[in-house]
Write a structure and sequence with these properties.
The complex is a heterodimer. Chain A is mainly alpha-helical. In chain A, 64% of the residues lie in helices and 1% in strands. Chain B has 2 domains: 225 residues, NADH:ubiquinone oxidoreductase-like, 20kDa subunit (Rossmann fold, 3-Layer(aba) Sandwich), CATH 3.40.50.700; 92 residues, Cytochrome-c3 hydrogenase, C-terminal domain (Cytochrome-c3 Hydrogenase, Chain A, domain 2). Chain B is built from 16 helices and 9 strands. In chain B, strand 5 and strand 6 form a beta hairpin. Classes of the chains: A mainly alpha, B alpha/beta.
């Protein structure tokens, strides 16, 4: 929004408020883009079957020096950082009482769940010797001395219990509106859920704090193979810090993009709050990173003319420029600057999370890893699966925040413009859900 | 010798009890035997040490006659030089060693008489152990016992033996005395004696548990262990040293000591390039420790294997000559143990570039549209609200009609 038009707009329009989550209506789920996503997903599944039959050797570009391909280093290391919104936004909203951010919580929970679920599914496909996979159901056979096991167990438990439970409310809401006969049951279930919720939420903040830092600790174990600009005892904290600002970028950026695509009003107070927090997270993280490098005395390596220095400056500048753009968007109220700020800082964070595993990982001078086409397609296919799931869910459940009026508009839309659409279920029993039906469709 | 009954009338258990050997020591010996011959022997293929001890205890003490020929007495030494002196005594209590030129006190005519008595008492039942190569050139005059050529004595004693065990490489196929030009015409037992089952236990020296295993298998089960084409018992000689070598991982990873005392040698890397014959030498040295001390064997102390159990290897191949490898790399059905550095394939690179371009382009396009997005959102709110109000009015007009 240009500043001038914003200032001239009437107050009630200038400050659109996100008051409740409203499904995206009026757009079909299945469109050309969705079909492309589904096709990419199916292609990935086919290639996955091929991988299970042929083994990792012919399928991937991994070798002895690089035992971790992009399925681990990108889809898990990087994308779960983007999917830490349930952790970072949740802590900001609930623990640090940034109450405006509650409007973004459903987006955060959904993106987190999809990122973790797709990453973990791909991790299962990445596991070597799949015929031994059934041992995973015998906990007493687990190798508890493996640091990777800590990450795997922690991530799986987090995605399967706290994250899944946190995503139940939109489903309950939908059921509540779907049929009045379901309401007592739904309400009873919700009362029961509320008793457990404090524990679930506590676990939902504890577990990501553990495994997002453990991912850094894994690279700590790689020792001198990771370039000194990245290899530091603070790696776990830096990994966790990168996850926080990246996930803010993912949640707020995705929400902004959704508002753009589906023409929703943006609550600038919420977005400003998120941008302000993200900017401070970014500057704090950059300060920690730089201080660590200076005090370890490896700043000189950042000025060597090699690829490591190049990657280092690329990620530092991307994060710095992103943070600076977020700060400046607070002054100018330019949504474009804010969006690009999120994109650039998250991109920088993604490179940072990726670097110690691949770009700055040098087991020996002649080793090289570049993903094979199949690896890239499978990785992309699982991301497409996540995006397709996101599109499906936001069009069927109340995830995206909107002004309350949007809810009423949706009621009108289904009531009068698309009365034949029954399956959305939201307005079977009244316009606004609270009342029993005023009009029956008996005839 | 005279006090010692030459007739094996006692069972092993009775004799051990009479000798004051503790049950515990005997069980330890049985345990070591089980460890030394984990498979291939019917005797040790039992569930527990107690069962093995029972089987051995019930057997009669085997009468053993031990003849020396062209040897260094190393095989006898390995039997005696166990790390704990008790073990050597124990072995000598389990078997009845009725004639052994190195160990017995008698000499001269007394010794001759002892041999005759031992043969007469247990004719057809004793086990003959031969140590050393037998000189055959010039009717065997290069080695004489009691004025007779050794080869003649061997034939006589072997004729009445139940089984013949050739201990050491010399007795098995000639060993050092048979090295070129072999002036005495030294040969192994199987070239001299015939008509009796002959077990070869090559090695320089062989592990004494191999001998004990064969003898006890014979007296408890009444038969000799399964043997390979060279008459070597499979329980000890079926596999090559290379298969279970503690340095095998270095071989697979390509880490070799190139010279004695170099960095690789000090780090304990594979000795193949120093001429180690482990890949073609059939012996259990890598898993059966000498003198009950782990690591006490050539490769364990950094010396390449010379292949002492193989007739065609030791004294035939050069000390530092490397041996051909049967399987240099594992078969293709296993995952490769070493894969070279990866490479950038054009298709993958193009794909990554295309994805990055598409995502970057879409982001840029989206960001450009943000210029007016907030306005668009607000406009839509206005439009939709107006529209909704209109529709609602229309509907309210229509609904009463329906009820009519």
């Amino acid at each position: 929004m240009s500043t001038a038009s914003m200032r001239n707009a009437p107050d009630r329009l200038r400050y659109a408020r996100w008051e409740r989550a409203v499904p995206v209506y009026g757009f079909p789920v299945v469109n050309r883009f969705f079909l492309v996503l589904v096709a990419m997903t199916l292609l990935a599944f086919l290639l996955t079957a091929y991988r299970e039959l042929a083994g990792l050797g012919p399928v991937s570009g991994m070798n002895d020096a690089y035992g971790w391909g992009i399925w681990k280093t990108f889809n898990v290391m990087v994308l779960t950082a983007l999917g830490s919104g349930a952790f970072a936004v949740g802590i900001a909203a609930w623990v640090f009482r940034r109450k405006r951010l509650h409007a973004l919580m459903r987006m955060a929970l959904l993106t987190s769940f999809l990122a973790y679920a797709c990453g973990l599914l791909l991790l299962g496909i990445d596991a070597g010797r799949p015929w031994n996979f059934y041992w995973i159901v015998f906990p007493w056979k687990w190798n508890m001395h493996s640091p990777l096991a800590e990450v795997a167990i922690c991530m799986s438990i987090y995605a399967m219990i706290p994250l899944a439970v946190e995503n139940i409310p939109p489903v309950l809401e939908r059921l509540w509106y779907f049929d009045s006969r379901l309401r007592p049951g739904v309400e009873r279930f919700e009362r029961g859920l509320h008793k457990f919720f404090p524990w679930i939420i506590a676990a939902a903040y504890l577990l990501p704090g553990m495994h997002q830092s453990s991912l850094g600790a894994l690279m700590l174990l790689a020792g001198a193979r990771v370039h000194p600009l990245w290899q530091t005892p603070w790696l776990p904290l830096l990994y966790l810090g990168a996850a926080t600002f990246m996930s803010f970028g993912c949640v707020a950026g995705t929400t902004m993009l959704c508002c753009l695509v589906w023409k929703r009003a943006m609550d600038m107070e919420v977005l400003d709050e998120a941008a302000r927090i993200t900017a401070w997270l970014i500057f704090g993280w950059l300060a920690l990173r730089l201080l660590d490098i200076v005090f370890r005395g490896v700043l000189g390596t950042a000025f060597h003319l090699d690829r490591f220095a190049g990657v280092f400056w690329l990620e530092m500048l991307l994060v710095l420029i992103g943070g600076w753009m977020l700060r400046s968007s607070l002054r100018t109220h330019e949504t474009r600057t804010m969006f690009l700020g999120y994109i650039l800082s998250s991109l920088g964070g993604m490179i940072y999370r990726f670097s110690p595993t691949t770009l700055a990982f040098r087991p020996n001078p002649e080793s090289l890893y570049f993903p094979s086409a199949i690896e890239v397609l499978v990785s992309l296919g699982f991301i497409c699966m996540g995006i397709a799931g996101f599109l499906l869910v936001v069009k069927r459940f109340g995830i995206l925040p909107a002004p309350l009026q949007e809810w009423h508009d949706m009621a009108s839309y289904f009531r009068f413009r698309r009365p034949y659409i029954r399956w959305t279920g939201y307005f079977k029993h009244g316009y606004y859900g609270e009342n029993e039906p005023e009009v029956t469709d008996s005839d | 010798m005279s006090k010692h009954p030459t007739i094996a009338e006692h069972t092993i258990a009775e004799h051990l009890e009479a000798s004051g050997v503790s049950r515990r020591s005997f069980l330890q010996l049985c345990g070591m035997l089980m460890a030394a011959a984990p498979m291939g022997l019917a005797l040790t293929s039992k569930g527990s040490v107690l069962q093995v001890a029972d089987a051995i205890g019930k057997a009669k003490r085997p009468s053993v006659i031990w003849l020396h020929f062209q040897d260094c007495t190393g095989c006898t030494e390995t039997l005696l030089r166990t790390s704990a002196p008790d073990v050597a005594h124990l072995i000598l209590d389990v078997i009845s060693l009725d004639y052994h030129e190195t160990l017995m006190a008698a000499s001269g005519a007394q010794a001759e008489a002892a041999l005759s008595k031992a043969m007469a008492d247990n004719a057809g039942k004793y086990v003959l152990v031969v140590e050393g190569a037998i000189p055959t050139r010039d009717d065997g005059i290069y080695y004489e016992m009691g004025g007779r050529p050794g080869v003649q004595v061997l034939r006589e004693v072997a004729a009445q033996a139940a089984a013949v065990i050739a201990i050491g490489s010399c007795a098995s196929w000639g060993g050092i005395p048979s090295a070129d030009p072999n002036p005495t015409g030294a040969m192994g037992v199987n070239n001299v004696a015939s008509g009796k089952p002959i077990v070869n236990l090559p090695g320089c020296p062989p592990n004494p548990y191999n001998l004990l295993g064969v003898v006890l298998e014979y007296v408890t089960m009444g038969r000799l262990p399964e043997m390979d084409e060279f008459g070597r018992p499979k329980f000890a000689y079926e596999r090559v040293i290379h298969e279970n070598c503690p340095r095998r991982a270095h071989f697979d990873a390509g880490r070799f000591a190139a010279a004695f005392g170099d960095e690789g040698h000090r780090k304990g890397w594979c000795l193949y390039k120093l001429g180690c014959k482990g890949p073609i030498t059939h012996a259990a040295c890598s898993v059966r420790q000498f003198n009950e001390i782990p690591g006490v064997w050539p490769i364990g102390i950094g010396a390449p294997c010379v292949g002492c159990t193989e007739k065609g290897v030791v004294w035939r191949m050069g000390t530092f000559e490397t041996v051909p490898i049967h399987l240099a790399t594992p078969p293709d059905t296993y995952p490769p143990i070493y894969s070279p550095a990866g490479q950038i394939k054009v298709g993958a690179a193009v794909l990554v570039g295309a994805i990055a371009g598409a995502v970057g382009g879409a982001t840029w396009v989206a960001s450009q549209r943000f210029q007016s997005s907030a306005e668009a959102g607000i406009e839509r709110v206005i439009v939709d609200r107006k529209h909704a109000e209109e529709l609602k009015e229309t509907a309210e007009k229509q609904i009463p009609k329906k009820e009519d």
